[in-house]
What we know:
By secondary structure, this protein is of the alpha+beta class. It folds into two domains: about 15-120, no CATH class; about 165-385, no CATH class. It is about 35% helix and about 10% strand. The chain has eleven helices and ten strands. The radius of gyration is 45 Å and the shape is elongated. The termini are far apart.
Amino acid sequence: MAEIPRRNSVRRSTRLILKSLKRPITGPVYVDLEADDADQVIIDATISENNNHVGDLPETMNNVGDTVIVEENKGPVRGQVTLSDSDNDFVDPAPWSKSKEKRQDNTVETRNVKRKLVLKETEKEIPEAPRLNDNKIKLKAKKSNVDDKAQKRKAKEKIEERIEIVEKADEITKIRISPRILSDMICALSDAQQQWIEDAGFKNLLKFELVELPQRLSYKVLQSFDEKNCMLVLKNGVIEITGKVVHAILGLPYQGAEIEFVQDNAVQERLKKWRSQFGISNGQSLVKASDVVDKIKQTGDVDDTFKMNFLVVMANVLIRSNTNNFVSQAVLYFNDDLDHCAKYNWANYLIKSLVITKKRWMRTSSLFFTGPMIFLLVSIFWFYSLPHS
């Protein structure tokens, strides 16, 4: 077998290359040559009659497009000389080199030509990859979103379901919003505003004067509360936490329907109106309790803004607050007219919040308690002030 020239060797004989290649082919053979003779640049030997081998090509080639005859074992086979610049389907590609190609119109074009000997097999149909059903994709994406929400919900409930109790760094209990906020607001109310508070069922709150809580005593009292049986266990007795007890201590309404919170259009409009007084239009609104009290002090009118401000301060100080220094706006989702507050059981709402926040407090390392700490502490003094005590 003749040796095929490589690298910088000059390829002058197409016949020698094709003769050296003795392997079956099923299609055209493209030979990209770097030769001095422009007519011998690329040869397309198209084999007819389903022959499997390429025979000898004549040493001397005419111009591109001429017909050539290749001698085979079965007889002569016709082929055609064509010019091709295809760079597809390389076999053993040689290094890059620069050459000039002269076309039929005698124009000269300089470009990068890859020295190569290419065997192009018969093209086969590649089966198209199966496409997934769009509905299945949507269902999978929807299932993924549901799984993410479920994981977040489980992570949130993990604290409440945890068995072990986390020890505090110090035996003290703090609250986010000081009772001084509520007492300052009560002192700044106008007569019309006090009348509305009385009609709303919060008459006893007009006597609220507490300004601070002892942190160590609050810790001991909170530890004494049994959230499973909803009772405060003391050395001299037990205080069962009921709606009547809450009403006797704080004066919150304890009869009527259960409080419901919704997120309908009416509630959304109420939220926008409340946030607009602080210059908040969209997004999360971070408002401090002191800012709400300042708004109440600016006017003595009894409008919807005042009613919402009062409920926000009252609920954050007495019932439940956020884990940060900003007020919780949950009470604004109240599913009724704000003038109908007296028709609902606010005492039971406080008890539910007490149980939930106590469970979370026992299972976190935070010293802050977001539940009704004022109620628990005042209930101790109320209990010992009773005649039987």
